[in-house]
Design a protein that fits this description.
The chain is mostly helical and 188 residues long. It has one domain (3-182): Fumarate Reductase Cytochrome B subunit. It has helices at residues 3-10, 19-44, 51-79, 90-120, 140-174, 179-182; strands spanning 126-127, 131-132. The protein has a two-stranded antiparallel ribbon with strand order 1-2. Bound molecules: protoporphyrin IX containing FE (2 copies). One protoporphyrin IX containing FE is lined by residues 21, 25, 28-29, 32-33, 76, 84, 100, 103-104, 106-107, 161, 164-165, 168, 179-180, 182-183.
């Protein structure tokens, strides 16, 4: 197989996503959705003695989102967004792009604010008992600011995600456009 055709499968081109973007998208999507479920259950469910373990899993997985998410966002930044020629209205295209940019921002802001609010409260972030994130000095005001950001962004993210998934499903099943195949690296 030619090296060029191998590269073209993994890298994005002007109108389609390559396998690197596909893996980045679905891995982070699964992690972010799981993180929202864990976070919301910490907030609203009566977890009893499980709470400590759920919080510790939330922090460890969140640290992985921070590390892998940084790579995912940089990859998109350097590669840009592939365009498409689907017959959708310009405002829908614009709204989708705006949502994508906010989703990319949330991939960084959510775990970063979680890290800052935890460390500024004097609690270490230990990742699956393997390594710890760098400590920062304790600060009550920083902790409170980061906590506010974490909570506000979490609820904004829930709304964005709902719009993103509904948009993808409406285009796929109502407008009969191959959006999901596009994010599986299968079509332009
Ligand atoms: C079940 C959940 C999800 C579905 C069905 C889904 C579906 C899709 C589809 C079909 C596209 C391609 C749209 C296009 O290029 O026109 C896309 C792109 C995108 N999605 Fe999702 N998505 C999901 C979850 C998420 C989550 C949780 C995030 C981030 C927190 C996310 C962030 C993005 C971003 C930033 C793009 C733009 C391209 C990229 O950088 O990967 N998605 N999604
Ligand atoms: C994608 C990443 C993340 C998402 C989507 C997420 C989501 C959430 C949500 C929805 C909540 C409940 C609402 C709230 O109280 O703010 C929450 C709470 C919390 N998160 Fe995160 N989070 C993420 C990353 C992190 C990280 C990396 C840490 C720490 C290292 C962290 C620490 C916490 C803590 C300490 C709470 C409060 C739990 C309690 O009620 O005591 N989060 N998170």
């Amino acid at each position: 197989m030619q090296l060029n055709s191998l590269n073209s499968k993994y890298q994005d081109n002007q109108t389609s996503y390559g396998y690197i973007s596909v893996i980045n998208h679905w891995l982070i999507a699964a992690l972010v959705i799981l993180m929202l479920i864990l976070g919301l259950s910490l907030e609203f469910a009566d977890l009893g003695s499980l709470k400590r373990n759920v919080l510790s899993l939330h922090k460890s997985l969140g640290a992985l989102v921070l590390i892998f998410g940084a790579w995912r966002v940089l990859w998109r930044l350097f590669n840009g967004f592939p365009s498409h020629n689907f017959a959708i209205k310009p405002w829908q295209k614009g709204a989708a792009k705006f949502t994508h940019i906010l989703l990319l921002l949330s991939i960084i802001i959510m775990p970063f604010s979680g890290y800052i609010m935890t460390e500024a409260a004097g609690r270490p972030v230990n990742v699956f008992m393997l390594f710890s994130l760098p400590p920062i000095p304790d600060s009550r005001s920083l902790k409170e600011a980061a906590q506010l950001v974490h909570t506000l962004c979490a609820y904004t993210l829930c709304g964005l995600l709902l719009a993103h998934v509904m948009g993808a499903l409406v285009h796929q099943f109502k407008d009969k456009l191959p959006m999901l195949q596009r994010m599986l690296g299968k079509t332009n």
